[in-house]
TrEMBL record:
Residues 39-101 form the T-SNARE coiled-coil homology domain. This is 3298_t:CDS:1. The keyword Protease does not apply. The chain crosses the membrane at residues 113-134. Residues 139-159 are annotated as: Disordered. SMART domains: t_SNARE. It comes from Acaulospora morrowiae.
Length: 159
């Protein structure tokens, strides 16, 4: 129908009965072969357009689902970013504390060696002092006098 409105044309294209209009015109046409080829091409194009339309709808649905997934992951991703920043800060602080601990350990080791050396010196001084105190005097080379005591003998009584 050459006087059809745009809405009627779209309704005819969306409706599968639109092919019947072309089929009827084929029957009345004198150029049956050319009309049949034209009808087949129009139907193929129509089918291709329908496939493209379905594909676009599927893509739109996929994008909507993807948007929902991205929005759902926004909160966990934000939390992960915050935790990452906190971990970075904690690691930096840990490095500072480890450095302080190493310095303290070095100082403690040094102090232990000082204490050990002082103890060795004290032991040496005490040993020398004890040796001097207990050492026999060199001017007195004779052995100390021994006292002889006589044991009382048996008492004899005459009767």
């Amino acid at each position: 129908n050459p006087q059809a409105t745009q809405q009627e044309i779209e309704a005819a294209l969306d409706n599968d009965e639109g092919g019947q209009v072309f089929a009827q015109s084929l029957m009345t046409s004198t150029r049956y072969g050319a009309a049949r080829d034209a009808l087949r091409e129009v139907q193929e194009r129509h089918d291709d357009i329908k496939k493209i339309e379905r594909t676009i709808e599927e893509l739109a649905n996929l994008f909507q689902e993807m948007q929902l997934l991205v929005e759902a992951q926004d909160v966990p991703i934000t939390a992960i970013e915050e935790h990452t920043e906190q971990v970075t800060h904690d690691v930096e602080q840990a490095a500072v504390h480890v450095e302080k601990a190493l310095e303290s350990a070095r100082g403690a080791r040094r102090k232990k060696w000082y204490c050990f050396m002082i103890l060795v010196i004290i032991l040496i001084v005490a040993g020398v002092g004890l040796y001097i105190y207990l050492k026999p005097k060199s001017s007195d080379t004779s052995p100390p006098p021994t006292q002889t005591t006589t044991a009382p003998g048996p008492v004899t009584t005459k009767a």
